[in-house]
What does this fold into?
Amino acid sequence: MTTETTHTGGIHERVTALLEERLGLLPEEVTRDAKFKEDLGLDSLDMVELLTLVETETGQDVDDGTAPSMATVGDVIDYLAAHGGGDAT
It folds into this structure.
């Protein structure tokens, strides 16, 4: 049985690995509270790539109203947890 903490922990690991691999970030930089633009230095192109990856993980389009609210790593983790992302290996 998977608990919510275990589930979101697994998603956090995947998001962290993705950001490290794609953007060259260090693991200690990718915290739940890290803001994509201010703390991690993502530009608009990086954000489009991140949203594309979120859509791939969930199999759903991220609507225009939701995308701007994803300002932190935690926002993406919570979105993936709520929309079924992170279940595939």
